[in-house]
């Protein structure tokens, strides 16, 4: 487009008019610029695939580790929540209580408002079940009499299934006549809960530490990128680029590193889940548990990637804050 | 357009780069800044670009007092000052076009606008046909013209040049000077730091001479006429 040089003044005026373009045109060019910078910084990462992949891998591992522990923790908490809601109280009656007395006791418990249902397991029935399930039938034949008492299986109402509610109900049942012993299998559950609480804190501490590591890794990588583009930064500052303008490509670089790291972390998690799920199902089956490792799901994956991008952005921001100010065009115009 | 009032710049206790420099350049004026190496030419240019701040005195560019300018405002001042360097400061990782487009990009100009103005600037320096090339493929004189195109692409009212002809032979130097003259004719204030006495004498323009930080001569060539050309 070899324009006649004499047309230049017209061009100049046209440009000046356009500079006064309405606000939305400016916004559009701002967005265009963002898109361009984002594309450009992504392309730069592609151009050095090995280095980028390594950074992504480091980030991925650092993010996958706490995430995996969090998922495990979640699954454990799911287990204890499930058991807590199905908490049952087992009341063993005294050996000398007759079947009629046992039935009366069951009815009495059943009338209590906190009780959803009561099942009476008669001692003969209990022995038969035990014989069938334990495989000790030969040994049991040597016993003169049935060593098992009548048993009440009490299922509390939903409203009474809190720790205090269950405790109060236990106290009530214990106070009844003819009751020998009351058992609630919540002790180990409470221990598990206490342990998951500790584990949760440990996991969060670990997550914080590894998040910090991610920020540092990205910060260092971006610092190198800044060094590599020193000339460009100098020129941008010389021709009137604001700090925000100069920072932008590096912030996008950090965010892209974060994106890649998040995807790698997600892949690691998925592969580990696939790897572990078979054995865990078998183990849970042995314990007759519904326990299963829960994957992060779609929301979790999105959250992971967004957090990873934020961490990358933050790391880049720190590097930029620290190193961009050092690059001032003062030394460009030699003596 | 550019005014120095009693400007002193001291780097540390024993090195004073400029001492009480006074001068004033009008709109559309073209002047040379001369002096021996280390006389303070670069310091003077840096003060105009707010790369440095004066120790004492006032620097005023385009009516704007630069002493009290907050750091955040510096980029906006630089957008009104085009600079040409002896070593071009071109980026070799992008095309000629993209090099020239940088001042417009930092301003957030629209792509259409950028295209038109970059091509106009390249046309002005006679390099329109080489917009897609890498600056590395160009000769020294062409690289310098790319630098000039970049300096003027956003129509700054002030154009500074630091030894713009330092590496060029006389014919190319004359070409470059002709460009600078044309810019001053359309109202751009041009200040050229140079050693090239022959060139200065040939141009017959105003000359600011520095000697150990002092402005020893500010011979006004107003009599010769601001638009005489050469």
Automatic annotation (TrEMBL), chain A:
Keyword Transmembrane: yes
Organism, as annotated: Marinobacter excellens HL-55
Pfam families assigned: FtsX (PF02687), FtsX_ECD (PF18075)
Compartment(s): Cell inner membrane
Topology with respect to the bilayer: Multi-pass membrane protein
Gene3D superfamilies: 3.30.70.3040
Lineage top rank: taxon: Bacteria
Record key words, sorted: Cell cycle, Cell division, Cell inner membrane, Cell membrane, Membrane, Transmembrane, Transmembrane helix
Protein name stated in the entry: Cell division protein FtsX
One of the GO BP terms on file: cell division
Automatic annotation (TrEMBL), chain B:
Keywords: ATP-binding, Cell cycle, Cell division, Cell membrane, Membrane, Nucleotide-binding
Record InterPro entries: AAA+_ATPase, ABC_transporter-like_ATP-bd, ABC_transporter-like_CS, ABC_transpr_LolD-like, Cell_div_FtsE, P-loop_NTPase
UniProt record, GO biological process: cell division
Chief site of localization: membrane
One GO molecular-function entry: transmembrane transporter activity
Subcellular location: Cell inner membrane; Cell membrane
Subunit structure: Homodimer. Forms a membrane-associated complex with FtsX.
GO CC terms, sorted: plasma membrane
Pfam families: ABC_tran
Superkingdom field: Bacteria
ABC transporter domain mapped to chain residues: 2-227
Protein role: Part of the ABC transporter FtsEX involved in cellular division. Important for assembly or stability of the septal ring.
Protein family (similarity comment): Belongs to the ABC transporter superfamily.
Mode of membrane association: Peripheral membrane protein
Native species: Marinobacter excellens HL-55
Name of the protein this chain belongs to: Cell division ATP-binding protein FtsE
């Amino acid at each position: 487009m070899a324009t006649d040089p004499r047309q230049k003044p017209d061009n100049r005026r046209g440009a000046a008019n356009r500079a006064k373009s309405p606000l939305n045109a400016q916004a559009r060019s701002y967005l265009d610029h963002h898109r361009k910078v984002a594309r450009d910084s992504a392309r730069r990462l592609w151009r050095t695939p090995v280095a980028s992949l390594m950074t992504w891998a480091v980030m991925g591992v650092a993010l996958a580790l706490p995430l995996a522990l969090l998922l495990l923790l979640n699954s454990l908490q799911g287990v204890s929540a499930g058991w807590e809601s199905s908490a049952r109280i087992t009341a063993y009656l005294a050996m000398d209580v007759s079947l009629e007395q046992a039935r009366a006791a069951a009815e009495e418990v059943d009338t209590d408002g906190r009780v959803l249902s009561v099942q009476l397991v008669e001692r003969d029935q209990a022995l038969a079940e035990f014989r069938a399930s334990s495989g000790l039938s030969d040994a049991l034949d040597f016993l003169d009499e049935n060593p098992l008492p009548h048993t009440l299986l009490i299922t509390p109402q939903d409203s009474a299934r809190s720790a205090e509610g269950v405790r109060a109900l236990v106290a009530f049942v214990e106070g009844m006549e003819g009751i020998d012993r009351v058992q609630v299998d919540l002790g180990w559950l409470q221990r598990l809960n206490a342990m998951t609480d500790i584990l949760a804190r440990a996991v969060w501490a670990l997550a914080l530490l590894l998040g910090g590591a991610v920020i540092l890794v990205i910060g260092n990588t971006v610092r190198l990128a800044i060094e590599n583009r020193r000339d460009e930064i100098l020129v941008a500052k010389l021709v009137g680029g604001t700090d925000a303008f100069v920072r932008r490509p590096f912030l996008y670089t950090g965010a892209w590193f974060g994106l890649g790291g998040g995807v790698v972390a997600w892949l690691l998690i998925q592969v580990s889940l696939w790897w572990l799920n078979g054995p865990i199902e078998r183990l849970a089956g042995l314990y007759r548990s519904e326990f299963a490792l829960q994957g992060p799901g779609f929301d979790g994956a999105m959250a992971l990637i967004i957090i990873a991008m934020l961490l990358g952005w933050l790391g880049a921001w720190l590097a930029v804050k620290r190193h961009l100010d050092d690059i001032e065009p003062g030394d460009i115009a030699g003596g | 357009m550019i005014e120095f009032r009693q400007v002193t710049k001291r780097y540390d206790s024993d090195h004073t780069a400029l001492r009480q420099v006074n001068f004033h350049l009008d709109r559309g004026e073209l002047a040379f800044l001369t002096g021996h190496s280390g006389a303070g030419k670069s310091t003077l240019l840096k003060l105009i670009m707010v790369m440095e701040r004066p120790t004492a005195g006032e620097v005023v560019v385009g009516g704007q007092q630069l002493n009290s300018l907050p750091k955040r405002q510096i980029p906006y001042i630089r957008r009104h000052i085009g600079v040409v360097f002896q070593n071009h400061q071109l980026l070799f990782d992008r095309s000629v076009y993209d090099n020239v487009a940088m001042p417009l990009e930092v301003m957030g100009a629209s792509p259409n606008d950028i295209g038109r103005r970059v091509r106009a600037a390249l046309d002005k320096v006679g390099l329109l046909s080489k917009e897609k090339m890498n600056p590395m493929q160009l000769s020294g004189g062409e690289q310098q013209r790319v630098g000039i195109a970049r300096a003027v692409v956003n129509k700054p009212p002030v154009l500074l040049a630091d030894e713009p002809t330092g590496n060029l032979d006389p014919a190319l130097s004359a070409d470059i000077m002709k460009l600078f003259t044309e810019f001053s004719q359309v109202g751009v204030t041009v200040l050229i730091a140079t050693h090239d006495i022959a060139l200065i004498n040939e141009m017959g323009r105003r000359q600011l001479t520095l000697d150990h930080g002092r402005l020893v001569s500010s011979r006004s060539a107003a009599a010769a006429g601001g638009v005489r050309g050469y």
